[in-house]
Amino acid sequence: METPAKQTEPLTRAAFMLAFDLSKERLTNRGELGYLLRAAALAELLLAGHLTDESGKPRARSAPRHGGLPGVVWEQISTSPPRSWRHWIRKESGKAVRLVRDELEHDRVINVERRRFLLFPLTVVTPRKAYLWRRLAERVGQAIRGGRPVTRMEQDDRVLAALAAAARMKVVLTRTESYRHRKRIEQLSEPVKPITTALRKNIDAARNAAQAG
Question: Given CA atoms 59, 89, 43, 108 in this order, what sign does their dihedral have?
Answer without folding.
Answer: negative
